[in-house]
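Quick one: structure for this chain?
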Amino acid sequence: MRSIGIRVSSKEIFYSIFEGTKEQCTLITHEKINEPAAYTFPQILTYYRRHLESIFKEYDINSCGIKLAEPISGRMGQAAKDGAKKRLQIEAIIIETVNSNGLDLIYGPFSTFAALLGIKKSSEYLDASEFYGLPNWKKTNKYFKESSLAGVGVLK
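Got it. Here's what it folds into:
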């Protein structure tokens, strides 16, 4: 079984692809998709959808985990709120893309995937020296860590 874990920011999509089971998995790759600077927002959404569909086919993906944004705080500044809204819109397009491609799908905030893996708090995986045997975990970007959490979490 192959899974993809996805973590969206307002300017890029981070993804990690795994093969195996929760008990024994292998990282196939982790990459990011950058937002094309010259595109309008609707064009960016189309670009992301098409790019993800090609990844699903290339890697024969069976399931997808999408680590969604945590609840938005009312104390955020306007720029942060705008970024969070954009992220939510991108996440919605990804959910639709995954569903229309017939993949198994789990999406939610940290707690959704933590429960699937028996993790009680984020420091148990963010600050850990290793996570499911993945190389250089301590030095791995936080967004790749979150996409890995989602990718491993959806494995059977």
